[in-house]
Amino acid sequence: MIQFAIKRLMLAIPTLLAMLTAVFVLVRLVPGDPAAVMLGDQASAESLAAMREQLGLNQPIAMQYIHFLGDMLTGNFGASMTSGKTVLQEVSLVLPWTLQLTFASVLIGLVFGLPLGVWAALRRNAWPDYVGRILSLTGLSFPAFVSAMLMLLVFAIHFRWFPVIGSLVDGGFVSQLHALTLPALNLGLIMTAYVMRVTRSSMISVLGEDYIRTAKAKGVRPMRLVLRHGLRNALIPIVTVVGLYFGTLIGNSVLTEIVFNRPGLGKLILGALNTRDYTLLQGLMVVFALCVIVVNIITDIVYGLVDPRVKIK
Amino acid sequence: MKAIGLTLRMSAVAALITLSGVSPWASAQDSERATISVSPGIADITSLDPHRASLIGDKGIVAEMFNALVRFPPGSSDPAALEADLAERWESSDDKKVWTFFLRKGVMFHGGYGELKAADVVYSLQRAADPKRSSFSANFTALEKVEALDDYTVKVTLKYPDTAFLGRVSNYHGGQIVSKAAAEKLGERYGQAPIGTGPFAFSEHITQQYVKLVANDQYFRGKPKLGAIVYRMIPSDSARELAFASDELDLMLGKREQRWVERSRARGVTVDVFEPAEFRTLFLNRNIKPLDDVKVRQAIAASVNINEIIRYAGKDVADGGCSIIPNGYQGLDCSVGPYAYDPAHAKALLASAGYPNGLKLKSVVSNAAPQLPIMEIIQAQLAKAGVTLEMEVVDHATYQAKSRQDQSAIVFYGAARYPGADYWLTEFYDSASAIGAPAAMSNFGHCSVADDAIRKARVEADPQTQLELWKKAQVQIHDDVCAIPLFGLKQVWAKAASVDYGYVLHGALNLQPPVTELTTVKRDEQ
């Protein structure tokens, strides 16, 4: 399995290189001058020139690219142009927040989505199925920032059960979990809708298979039939969706982070883009790409675990 | 790979700290004194170095940590009210070219960096004037020599008499005094861990979350009544409002809209609307044809209905301009007044300029809330006179970049500066500041008609003659239609009922209400 992971990581290097080059070129194509953003609109031409020199922006693009690749290959992600902190410091400060939110919302999605999907499949075209389908459609069509605002208005402002600011300055484990509840629910409900739909359709397909009929004819108990013979065989598409959604959440939960005032990778990427912080943006893209690659590898490994027919080579 | 491993390990440690609730600054908390929670509406800080901090939010935080030789009294943005700060008193020569400042004794820097001495002042002013270390070097061009006569006396020699000199060494845009030892020791990191003499000292900055300042009990004006200030990074207007409504914020940046002000006041929120207004101007770029023709510029000026725009912005937050210099600035002359709105005259002017069927212009517009809706109104007004304004709506950084590359025929620009005519005229109307010039600043219109008056006024020692020169410059710029002054948009902040500033708020040049050693917050549980 370790060999498999290493092999997958090696295969990801050309993808990573292409992505790095694309990021390097694209961020420089966008109009805007990091020096001007940092120094503000009163900076003299001389001050701007001095800052560009300090940031290495006055070097030819080819030279900047060579330095950039060299730094990346040696594991030096550089320092943020605006804060001066290293990219690794910046990432390490926000990554825990992103991981907490992502894991919590995926967990909510699985805890609610799986049983609801199975139930809807078992009661196909009956009221539980209709209700489940309507709810999942609502979950999928509701923009995350709207549901976030509604949740805050109801649970934080009206009932005062939760804080509005998700990033607490102090507080223990319970306080942190408390503050995590609403943002995790907000993303978790969308995840629930995804998981439920995929589980339902996958289960319907599996429940129509010959081996299910055979098992039923042999007198296998209903619970065992559904969980062992049905759900286990229906898991592959569910794992795919969860893996994809997990990767997407890492960078795309920015709206939830903004509304709930939580730090996160998505918000950091947005900030770096607004300030034209090239080094931070490049470093973040590498981290983001690596996260997605790791999630994909884990997804492949899970395929092998849930379905012995999938061989990990 | 090693780096990734390190990141993951650091993240794991940070996650454990986060979840375990061991806040790194918890031990520094002052349990007896309240902490005020403030949101200046920014996503994060850029630099807290007073010679670099030029962005909204950054400079407000800097203002609590630093002092200058003189200061605007808390709550005032009036240059006539400048008072002693680190300097107990000062003298100037008859020709206003030599200034001597006598420093307070016993003023201590934060973090054990010792007593403030004349060497720190010399270092700070030289640093402020150095383009490699300061964003405000253009404000210090008059500086010829700064020297320490002894530990508590500083002599400043100017190249020419500068009537605004006291303002340049005030607690605004580069005038603050830094610790020489700290700045030299920390180098580039000084902006992330600044050392000043103010009532609050830097404690920590957590990316995207907060900046925390703690009370400086050695402050020379007395021990602060608050224990700490936490600046929360909440850029979303709605999220900030919700946090304020749930009592998680004591002080926050509001929306600079009449509707918001009225709605909030109706709900019982204390809303402060204060100076300085950020003055909005439409610069007409004569480098882009046909704006090189004064008749076309006059036609555009006659097409813009400023009163309609002010009505949209709102009576409490918007303040109509009477000159190209913002209201309240030293040297303002209202004798010519704003341009008259007359679409029929505008059409006639266009016809006489050779455009009987109207013309098309291109403008790069920021998608920022204070700009885009106003430009949409102006677009509609210009259309009535036959001018089609093609707007390229982009993010703010792109708008800044493209406007500074001469890509916009009409540039909408809003700014607040030190309230003196020279600052404004030099930056926006002197041809030396024109876009593309070696010393380019923000002269988007490439105006040069008043160069002589602006430059003579700058070095004029006689206040009366100086006022006349500034008046002449304003009339010349008005007649040449370099720009159309629109209105000033004031600062809007909401304050919890529990907050007492400790002063009366009329203005704040650093664009947020100062939290001083006298500010208090009454908490129910305390």
UniProtKB/TrEMBL annotation, chain A:
Keyword check for Endoplasmic reticulum: no
Localization, UniProt: Cell membrane
Principal place of residence: membrane
Pfam families named in the record: BPD_transp_1 (PF00528), BPD_transp_1_N (PF19300)
GO cellular component: plasma membrane
Domain annotation ABC transmembrane type-1: ranges: 95-303
UniProt superkingdom: Bacteria
GO biological process, one term: transmembrane transport
Its membrane topology: Multi-pass membrane protein
Keywords carried by this UniProt record: Cell membrane, Membrane, Transmembrane, Transmembrane helix, Transport
Membrane spanning stretches: 9-30, 101-122, 134-157, 177-196, 234-260, 280-306
Keyword Transmembrane helix belongs to the record: yes
Family membership noted in the UniProt record: Belongs to the binding-protein-dependent transport system permease family. OppBC subfamily.
Record's protein name: Glutathione ABC transporter permease
Species this chain originates from: Pseudomonas putida (Arthrobacter siderocapsulatus)
Lineage, top ranks: Bacteria, Pseudomonadati, Pseudomonadota, Gammaproteobacteria, Pseudomonadales
